[in-house]
Amino acid sequence: MATLTSKQNINAIVTAIKAEEQTLRVRYPILNQQNSIAMMILLVSLSALIGVALLYYFAIIPAWLCVLLAAFITSISHELEHDLIHRQYFSNRPLIYHFMMLAVWMMRPNTVNPWYRRRIHLHHHKVSGTEQDLEERLVGNGIRSPWLRAVVVSDGLLGLLINAKRFSREINDFKFLQVFNAGFPFATAYFVTLYGVIVYYTVQWVQPFALPKWGAELLAVAEFFMVVLIIPNVIRSASLNFVTSSMHYYGGVSNILEQTHVITSRWFLPFQLFCFDFGRTHTIHHFVPNQPFYIRQLISKKIRPIMALHGVRFNDLQSLRHANHYPIEKPAAKS
Questions:
Q1: Per-residue pLDDT, 94
Q2: pLDDT, position 332
Q3: Where are the transmembrane segments (predicted)?
Q4: Is 201 part of a structural domain of the chain?
């Protein structure tokens, strides 16, 4: 049988994804109410986050449970932001659209604002796998050193500071202050609180001291936000950054088939839990960007074998040893 070209393999995958989505929409007409579904998901997840915070505030649940629940809830808001960036919801209702953008940013305050991220994310789709892909490089893609990668994956601000000079040399139109300022005011408040609490307890460990009344009250507020929002987002963003920087290739990429591999390894399950199964489903998004995240979840089980048949790699974790470079020896395409 004749070997398919890359274009033919890509078209086969895109066709299968769209066909599976259409089948779902016919079977469940409610899926056509995208705006209503998105707003419901936003309001439920926002209410759940507030509810979990109240349960912790009134000592009904312990801190560790609040952290884990909040980390999972905020992972949903990331998926909503991703879809909003591609204007899947309320594209003709700017007031509602921007309200949703603001809401998902407030739930994930350790990120740049979604309006700036929209620009670098759409650019990511154009230059994925190259040194010009600022979005993926900001979260660790293309880094060979496991120690440096761990720092960038776990702390976006520190990663930006460490890589700023390199990005200035290699990425066209990269401006440090533009990226840094894109986090104001929420990311600014987030990192001030995070580092402030870390510094306080470090100093207390070295040389204990008593806080004035106003200082103790301020610390109590900071500790509350550490549990209900800041530490959950450390877990959420570190999980997402680890998965996405592991599955995107960097270098040697010539088409969509080579931009990502699918991660289904059981070793990644703890991280998948806090990034809404990103490793199993995100590759679908590269083939059909304009598709709600819950559709990807519903069709992924049927689409993964089709992607494998047409040349998409799975669990290529060896690529981490080569700074995510796409393998030189490419598997033969299947007909």
A1: 97
A2: 42
A3: 37-55, 90-107, 176-202, 214-235
A4: yes
What pLDDT shows up at residue 328?
77
Report yes or no on 331 lying in a domain: no
Instruction: Assign 3-class secondary structure to the chain.
Output: CCCCCHHHHHHHHHHHHHHHHHHHHHHCHHHHCHHHHHHHHHHHHHHHHHHHHHHHHCCCCCHHHHHHHHHHHHHHHHHHHHHHHCCCCCCCCHHHHHHHHHHHHHHCCCCCCHHHHHHHHHHHHHHCCCCCCHHHHHCCCCCCCHHHHHHHHHCHHHHHHHHHHHHHHHCCCCCHHHHHHCCCCHHHHHHHHHHHHHHHHHHHHHCCCCCCHHHHHHHHHHHHHHHHHHHHHHHHHHHHHHHHHHHECCCCCCCHHHCECECCCHHHHHHHHCCCCHHHHHHHHHHCCCCCHHHHHHHHHHHHHHHHHCCCCECCHHHHHHCCCCCCCCCCCCC
Give the mean pLDDT per block of 10 residues along the chain (335 residues). Answer: 86 98 97 98 98 98 98 98 98 97 98 97 97 97 96 96 96 96 97 97 94 96 98 98 98 96 96 97 97 97 97 96 86 40
